[in-house]
Amino acid sequence: MIEEPSIEPTPAAVLEDTPVVEVSVPPAESRRPRKPSLAITRLIQALWLGSGVFLMLSASAAFSAATNPTDAANVVGAILTRWHYIALLAPLLLMFLEWRRSRPVMLVILFVAVLLASFQALLDTRIRMIRAESFTPISSLPSNDPVRRQFGMLHGASQLFLLGQVIAAGTAIATRE
Question: What percent of the chain has pLDDT over 90?
Fold first, then answer.
C-alpha cells in the first residue's frame, strides 16, 4: 500500500481562508471617560471647592464669634492646616486623573492651583512663625509696627492665594469634558 503524503496548510493559507472581522473604534476625542473615573473626579472637585469656601466662611465666623483675636486665630490656624492638605492633594489627584484625557487647559489650571497652594502653605508657615515669635498678640501691636506690617502683608497675600485656589477649583468644575 502506498501512503499518501499529508499536506498541512501553511500559515498564510490559513489566514487567506479566515474571515475578516472589522472592528470600528471611535477616535480618542469622541471616547467618553469611564463613569467611575468621572464620578471620582467630580467628588474631588466638589470637596476641593467646598473646603475652600468653608474655610473662607468659617474664618470670618471665628473672628466674629471668638472672645479675642488670638483664640480666633488659633481656630482658623487649625482649619488652615487641614486645608493645606486638601489644597495640595485635590489638584494633584485631579492632574493624575486628567493626564490620560490630555486636556491642556485643565492641566494648566490644576498646575496653577498646586502652585497657589504651595505658596499659601509657605506663607502660612511664615505667619505662624511671626505669631510664635511675637511676645504680644499681633492685634495688640501698633499699626505702624514692622512686625504687624509684615504679618498684614503676608496675611493679605495668603488670602489672595486662597481666593485664587477657590477660583481654580470653580473653574475646574465649570470646565466640561
Answer: 60
pLDDT in tens, 59-100: 999 999 999 988 999 999 999 999 999 999 999 999 998 887
* Cell numbers at 162, concatenated: 486662597
Give the global pTM: 0.74
H/E/C letters for each residue in the chain? CCCCCCCCCCHHHHHHHCCCCCCCCCCHHHCCCCHHHHHHHHHHHHHHHHHHHHHHHHHHHHHHHCCCHHHHHHHHHHHHHHHHHHHHHHHHHHHHHHHCCCCHHHHHHHHHHHHHHHHHHHHHHHHHHHHHHCCCCHHHCCCCCHHHHHHHHHHHHHHHHHHHHHHHHHHHHHCCC
